[in-house]
TrEMBL record:
Subcellular location: Cytoplasm
GO MF terms, alphabetically ordered: LPPG:FO 2-phospho-L-lactate transferase activity
Example of a GO biological process term: regulation of cell shape
Stated role: Required for morphogenesis under gluconeogenic growth conditions.
Alphabetized CDD domains for the sequence: YvcK_like (cd07187)
Keywords assigned by UniProt, alphabetized: Cytoplasm
UniProt entry tagged with the keyword GTP-binding: no
Pfam families: CofD
UniProt protein name: Putative gluconeogenesis factor
GO CC, alphabetical: cytoplasm
Length: 343
């Protein structure tokens, strides 16, 4: 692993994923003034993003909208306007956020999502870089262990079958290509962070783009996986933290993760609102022996944040750990240590 030394240069940190976990970490990295690049999944086909994707044959905007806001320096009032969702009684606009509509309109105006996001980044005074993983929408496919299949990110968890593997395709069935500057960002990074986010539907879709998979395997950066706190309905039911990493390595056909961050804070019994957070089941079980067999370095700490009867990663604590790794010489030397560290 090559890491930022104690110089005035900000650590170059690339974070890959999607969903609600990504902005939490990006907010913290921005506050610490890291040189941040967010690479965002384009396989989402659910909710209002999915509606815009299908009606306009466009890259789904929702995850990119949240990332842009998390790295933006525009006033909070402007962010609130960008994030505003129309009420359910507003007929054709019901549930759509203004930001999603602006991103979709900008992509149509510029002719592609990449240039649209770069222009919006300037307009929104984004601190860092935001790139779609691919410049066209991807369809996510799952093959279950019983041999059956499903297509569409929003459909994969419905059967609650155990997933053998996932893959992505373009509309034209051509091999997906990484968006501009994605590969160079990964190869030039000090640290590449995966997650937190849904394993099969937010993280792996990006890694199933062959160019991105190759870059993540070849980069000299410290590749860090932030393990989920809770198991997820239809995706990671009954998973341990080691199972999460095993799935990543199986999909990439080699062990490529250098460091895993795992939460050891305990979620209080009956704390979580099961109706509001209905896709999350139970706390991920720990298998430190299994983790040590998969990765050179395991970092365990209480990364738990309990808020509004929901369970989240504490962004400040996670980012503190990422920064400590960025400047700590013990993390240099890719895949050359087998060490357990409990903080």
């Amino acid at each position: 692993m090559m890491n930022a030394k104690k110089t005035n240069r900000r650590p170059r940190i690339v974070i890959i994923g999607g969903g609600t976990g990504l902005p939490v970490i990006l907010n913290g990295l921005k506050a610490k003034q890291a040189d941040v690049t967010a690479i965002v999944t384009v396989a989402d086909d659910g909710g209002n993003s999915g509606v815009l994707r299908n009606e306009m044959n466009a890259v789904p905007p929702g995850d990119m909208r949240n990332v842009l806001v998390s790295l933006s320096n525009i006033p909070h009032m402007h962010k609130d306007i960008f994030q505003y969702r129309f009420a359910s009684k507003d007929n054709s606009l019901a549930g759509h956020s203004i930001g999603n509509l602006i991103i979709s309109a900008m992509a149509e105006m510029k002719g592609n999502i990449y240039e649209a996001i770069q222009l919006l980044s300037k307009m929104m005074l984004v601190e860092g870089h935001v790139y779609p993983a691919c410049e066209e929408p991807l369809e996510l496919h799952a093959v279950y262990k019983d041999g059956s299949t499903a297509s569409g990110e929003s459909n994969i968890a419905k059967s609650r079958k155990e997933i053998e593997h996932i893959y992505v395709t373009t509309k034209g069935e051509t091999e997906p290509k990484a968006a501009r500057k994605v590969i160079s960002s990964i190869l030039n990074a000090d640290m590449v962070v995966l997650g937190p986010g849904s394993l099969f539907t937010s993280i792996l879709p990006n890694l199933m783009i062959p160019e991105i998979a190759k870059a993540v395997q070849e980069t000299s950066a410290n590749v860090v996986y932030i393990c989920n706190i809770m198991t997820q309905l239809g995706e990671t039911e009954n998973f341990t933290d080691a199972n999460h990493v095993e799935v990543l390595h199986r999909h990439m056909k080699q062990k490529f993760v250098d460091t895993v961050l795992v939460n050891i804070g305990e979620v209080p019994e009956n704390y979580m609102d099961k109706e509001k957070y209905d896709e999350y089941l139970v706390q991920v079980a720990h298998d430190f022996k299994g983790l040590q067999a998969e990765v050179p370095m395991v970092i365990s700490n209480n990364f738990l944040k309990l808020e509004n009867n929901g369970v989240f990663h504490d962004g400040e604590k996670v980012v503190e750990e990422l920064f400590r790794m960025s400047f700590d010489p013990q993390y240099s030397g890719k895949k050359n240590k087998l060490q357990m560290e409990s903080l």
